Here is the input.
Amino acid sequence: MKKTRLVFMGTPAFAVPALSALHECCEILAAITQPDKPAGRGRKMTAPPVKVAAQQMGIPVKQPLNLRQREFITWLEALQPHYIVTCAYGKILPPAVLAIPHKAALNIHASLLPRHRGAAPIHRAIMAGDEESGITIMRMDSGMDTGDIVLSQAVPIDSNDTAGLLHDKLAALGAELIIVAIKKINKGTAQFQQQDERLATYAPPLKKDDEKINWCNTSEAIHNQVRGMNPWPGAYTELNGARLKIWEGQPSKQQGHPCGSVLAQSSAGILVATADGSYLITKVQPQGKKIMSADAFLRGRHISLGTVLG
Here is the structure.
């Protein structure tokens, strides 16, 4: 493996464990990541996590604006990598880039393909109420997550797992599986399997509409939405015209009407009516304030029973 030469392409924190694992056993010729972007309240230019990690490891970093530029492709060709490995890079690689590695262009995808192709597989798996997710290592082609599967491994999703918890499980698993996949290809024992297009589903980027809770959904659907939006960007409702983020809660069978009306409030939380029962809110974040328990939130205010959220 030490003689295996590769170029790594990734951007967010999800990709860092894979970069670190590959750095231990392969020669990483370069790390390619998205350009720095403004972040935070001060909109300060911030480097992607992969760039920060790569620089700490002494790996050269490239941040091209356009993967189709001749200058970039010529530079990449000159590296003569055995592999290009992508992990949440953020762009589809053009055919000219896919053709460069001597052995394969591989992608670490955070779902069991062909389910949840696209940009937000972790969030969408939680929001869909899936009982399992996983990692797929695939050989890239010109489509969006449509390439042949080298290997995959499932991970169960607990009923209280958030997108953040699943993110961390899958990031660690992706780092393990990419090493296994490269070893198999190097030995000539890898078996490539075509994806079944009949089973394909898609995980589009999150939209603003995905964040707002519709209390006329089922309690389970609301629970999945809250989990899928945690830790980013957060599901929310409105209370007396102000936004209130909901970070944690539990479905309840207690009935009440109309949807969104407050049925009870106690140290356990705020019970809100849904289409098929109710939802007990246990952790919130008032607008402009820190995350707190629903109990702490209620100590500072009284919400009249029957108040409608949203």
Q: What stands out?
A: Residues 209-299 form a domain with the Methionyl-tRNA Fmet Formyltransferase; Chain A, domain 2 fold (CATH 3.10.25.10).
